[in-house]
Write a structure and sequence with these properties.
Helix content: 55-70%
Distance between the termini: 59 Å
Shape: elongated
Radius of gyration: 25 Å
Strand content: 5-15%
Number of strands: 3
Structural class: mainly alpha
Largest sheet: 3 strands, parallel
């Protein structure tokens, strides 16, 4: 066993959507993000997402998780040995191709997904995705390369924001202590009148 770890993978309990929006999920993800570079990996069941409406549902979940956690998000299409994920990459980069796929789904959901696809174009633009097969190992190296790039993004965005928040909190605490010290000195000069009584 190595003395130092390059990566720590945590599998969230239950569905990631439920975990993300629960109180415990927020506590765990924020605690991790405060102590080390943290990346959210959203795993998509590629064979199931060959349905355009199911694909859209997954993308909406991923989008909500990104804006909830404010952490780098990596989209992983698994089971690529069963269903290659090239179709998903095409749908994310070519809105017309996705619309054509939706036309085959004659339902209210298909119509709704078409209107929502426009909203997700900006989301796709900044999204990193990889395909992976746990059975064959194909895409594993690409996955860890993507995680490293996302960790660098963490340092530039969330990590920088966290450092700024810590600095602001420390400055606020220092100002509070200076105020307390100033009030204490005023009380001492005034003989304690109207303030706290100090013994000794």
């Amino acid at each position: 066993r190595a003395e130092e770890l390059d990566f720590v993978l945590l599998d969230t309990p239950g569905q990631i959507e439920i975990f993300t929006w629960s109180a415990s999920g927020a506590i765990i993800s924020e605690s991790l993000a405060a102590s080390m570079p943290t990346v959210v990996v959203y795993v998509v069941d590629t064979p199931r997402c060959s349905s355009a409406v199911t694909f859209m549902s997954n993308m909406l979940y991923a989008c909500s998780i990104l804006y909830k956690t404010k952490l780098p998000l990596l989209l992983v299409f698994n089971k690529t040995d069963v269903t290659p994920h090239a179709f998903a990459q095409t749908w994310m980069s070519d809105l017309d191709a996705f619309r054509d796929a939706l036309q085959e789904e004659k339902s209210y959901m298909g119509t709704l997904a078409t209107s929502m696809a426009l909203m997700l174009e900006e989301f796709y633009a900044g999204l990193t995705s990889v395909g992976l097969s746990a059975r064959t190992g194909e895409g594993v190296d690409d996955f860890f390369d993507a995680v490293q790039r996302a960790a660098a993004e963490y340092d530039e965005t969330y990590g920088a924001e966290l450092a700024a928040r810590k600095k602001a909190a420390a400055e606020a605490e220092a100002a509070r202590r200076r105020g307390d010290l100033g009030r204490f000195r005023e009380d001492r000069r005034g003989g304690g009148s109207g303030g706290a009584t100090w013994g000794g």
